[in-house]
Amino acid sequence: MAEKGKVCVTGAGGYVASWVVKLLLSKGYIVHGTVREPSDEKYSHLKKLEKASENLKLFKADLLEYNTLCSAIAGCDGVFHVASPVPPTTVVPNPEVELMEPAVKGTLNVLKACTEAKVKRVVVVSSGYAVMRNPRWPKGKVKDETCWSDKEYCRTTENWYCLSKTEAETEALEYAKKSGLDVVRVCPTLVLGPILQSTINASSLVLIKLLKEGYESLENKHRMIVDARDVAEALLLAYEQPEAEGRYICTAHMIKMQDLVENLRSIYPYYNYPKNFTEGEETENLSSEKLQRLGWNYRPLEETLVDSIKSYKEAGILD
Ligand SMILES: NC(=O)c1ccc[n+]([C@@H]2O[C@H](COP(=O)([O-])OP(=O)(O)OC[C@H]3O[C@@H](n4cnc5c(N)ncnc54)[C@H](OP(=O)(O)O)[C@@H]3O)[C@@H](O)[C@H]2O)c1
C-alpha cells in the first residue's frame, strides 16, 4: 500500500485515539502518537497494533507543555487532536486545573504547534456535550451543528466536562478564523464499542455499570450512542475529504436507558441490571446528517454492544 503521509494523534493511548491510531496504520499512514509516559504499561496495546513496529512512533508530550507538542507534530501533514480529560464522574473537585486548562489551553497549544509546523489540516475531537446543553433551543427541534451548549448554563449546573468541551471547541473555532489554519471539528455523543486498551475509560464505564452495578433505580433518559470504530472512520473522513469543513455531529443511535437494558437482557440475561427506572428527561435528539452527507455510515447498535461486552470479558473486566 502506498504511504499516505505523516500524521500526529494526541493522547494516542486513550480509548477513542487507540482506534484512530489503528485505523490510520491500517490505511498506510505513518503515525506520531503523543502519550504522557511512553514507558507506561497502559500503552502496550499500541505497540501490538498491525504495522505499529514500522509506522508508529510514540512521543512523550503533555498538552500543557507546548514544546513537547511541537516535537511530536513537526513534519506532520495532519493532526488528530483527541486528548482531553474525560472524568469518570460529574464530581470534579478542581475543574479549572483538572478539566478546563488541559482542554482549552491544551487545544490552543496543539493548534499553535500545528501553525508552526505548517500542518495542512487539524481534526479536533469535540463532543456532543458541546452541542446539546442549550435551554434556549426550541423544544422538540432536532439539534444540528448550529446548536451550541450554553456556557453559563454549564457553569451554573456545574457540568464542568460539558463546559470544558464547549470552551475548547469555541476557542478552536476562533483560532481557525484568526490564523487561517484548516480546522475541522467532530462532536461524538456517548462512545461505546470494544476497548483496545486494558484500562476502563469513562464512557465504557457507563455500559459496564449498567451490567454490574444493580442500581435500585435509574433515570430512564435518552442516550445517544456511537461506536468508537465509527468515530475513528468519521475523523478519517473529516481529515481526508477535501470538502470537509466546520463542525460535524457524530452520533448513531438514540435509545432510552430502559430499552437499552432490555436489549442487553435479551442477549445476556444473567447480569446485575438496574431494578427500576424513573421518568427520564427531555429527548436529546442530535442529527448526523451533515456527516452522512460526507460519506459516513454506522454499524447496528447490537454489534456495538456485543463487541463491547466481548472485549470487557477479554480484558478481565467482566465475567
Ligand atoms: N468517550 C466518549 O463517550 C466521548 C464522547 C465525545 C467526545 N469524546 C472525546 O474524545 C476524546 C477522547 O476521549 P476518550 O473517551 O478516548 O477518553 P480517554 O480514554 O480517557 O482518553 C483521554 C486522553 O486524553 C489524554 N490527556 C488528558 N489530559 C492530558 C494532558 N494534560 N496531556 C496529554 N494528554 C492528556 C489522556 O492521556 P493519558 O493516557 O496520559 O491519561 C488520554 O489519552 C476526548 O477529547 C473526549 O472529550 C469522548
TrEMBL record:
The keyword Oxidoreductase applies. GO terms for molecular function: oxidoreductase activity, acting on the CH-OH group of donors, NAD or NADP as acceptor. Pfam families: Epimerase. Residues 7-245 form the NAD-dependent epimerase/dehydratase domain. SUPFAM superfamilies: NAD(P)-binding Rossmann-fold domains. This is NAD-dependent epimerase/dehydratase domain-containing protein. Keywords: NADP, Oxidoreductase.
